[in-house]
Design a protein that fits this description.
alpha+beta; Aminopeptidase; 2 domains; seven-stranded mixed β-sheet; 16 strands; acyltransferase activity, transferring groups other than amino-acyl groups; Acyl_CoA_acyltransferase; GCN5-like_dom; GCN5-related N-acetyltransferase Rv2170-like domain-containing protein
């Protein structure tokens, strides 16, 4: 088994993509983009690529990403083995080793996501535990359960700044989303809901969903950070065509007083793009969120929608400075 850091040789990256397509299907979209493998995020994240090789071909992979600012956190992704080599325990050997490496270098919480029950059982045997309200699991360095860890993680967080989201938030975004938020819709721009409403399936994919706003929707997103760059809030803006934009966002329940500034940041970005219309989609049951955004200037309801056969009723509000 080889353990490597970016930048990888393009030939190796091509091999990894071929493996993933073989293992997961031709429609597979990696949560670890090529720019990570080529070292373009080295300024923000430490990346370790674990590979098994046979006859100069990559037959098994796993990738661990850790933010430099919060090395206690990590995300594990793209754990895969060529079907021809399954049953040999390659993934088990790899995940056992990478978990040891992670904790020996100061890691505390290593997240992963899986919807495969067979894979989940393997992770359980290696020390991962399930996180309520999600298909995510976490491997902790001590005997704490996840609830104890997350309480300590966010304890006494001091908001420091709101900024355009950077790759350093790729992993710290995960624990924020996994909180049991009272607001049912966290961010309609990326179809993100509270785990109280819908089980969270994404792990490393959370950052990819937000980046999609930039790369495909002519949008932007912003993060509320602590001094050590824990993510405690997010806002976003998505282009809807004809110079129309939609904004949304959420934050840690203890810091809802910063939510106004988060949304205003997204609104001001839309204004800088000469937006003709700015809207906000909100669930009727999220009364406190609705009250906040109305005070910002989203006053006029322009339509109502239903999601999932009337389970969740939403309103779309129009921004006005009047």
């Amino acid at each position: 088994m080889k353990v490597e850091n970016p930048p990888l040789n393009p030939r190796i990256v091509c091999q990894m993509h071929e493996l993933w397509f073989t293992a997961f299907g031709n429609d597979f979209i990696s949560d670890v983009p090529d720019e990570v493998l080529y070292g373009e995020e080295d300024r923000w994240n430490c990346v370790h690529i674990y590979r098994h090789i046979s006859e100069h071909q990559t037959i098994s992979t796993a990738i661990v990403i850790r933010p430099h600012s919060i090395p206690a956190l990590g995300g594990l992704g793209e754990v895969s083995t060529n079907p021809k080599f399954r049953g040999k325990g390659l993934a088990t050997v790899t995940c056992r080793q990478l978990a040891e490496d992670f904790h020996e270098t100061g890691g505390v919480a290593l997240f992963l996501g899986t919807v495969n029950p067979d894979a989940a059982r393997i992770y359980e045997r290696l020390g991962w535990q399930h996180i309520n309200g999600s298909k995510l699991m976490v491997n902790l360095s001590d005997t704490d359960n996840y609830d104890d860890f997350i309480q300590k993680y966010f304890y006494d967080s001091i908001p420091s700044k709101i900024c355009v989201a950077q790759p350093g938030s790729r992993i710290p975004l995960i624990p924020l989303v996994l909180l049991p938020h009272d607001w049912s819709i966290l961010d309609s721009n990326v179809s993100l809901y509270s785990i109280n409403v819908e089980p969270q399936l994404s792990c490393l994919g959370l950052y990819r969903r937000y980046e999609y706003l930039r790369t495909h929707c002519q949008g932007e997103w912003f993060t509320l950070l602590t001094e050590d760059e824990r993510v405690i809030g997010v806002s976003s803006a998505s282009y809807k065509g004809n110079n129309r934009y939609q904004v949304d966002g959420f934050c840690h329940p203890n810091y809802e007083n910063f939510f106004v500034k988060l949304i205003e940041t997204a609104v001001n970005w839309c204004k800088s793009r000469q937006a003709a219309e700015i809207t906000f989609k909100i669930s009727q049951q999220d009364r406190s969120k609705k009250h906040i955004v109305r005070n910002i200037g989203f006053n006029t309801m322009i339509k109502e929608d239903y999601r999932d056969k009337n389970i969740l009723k939403t309103q779309t509000l129009l921004y006005s400075t009047d």
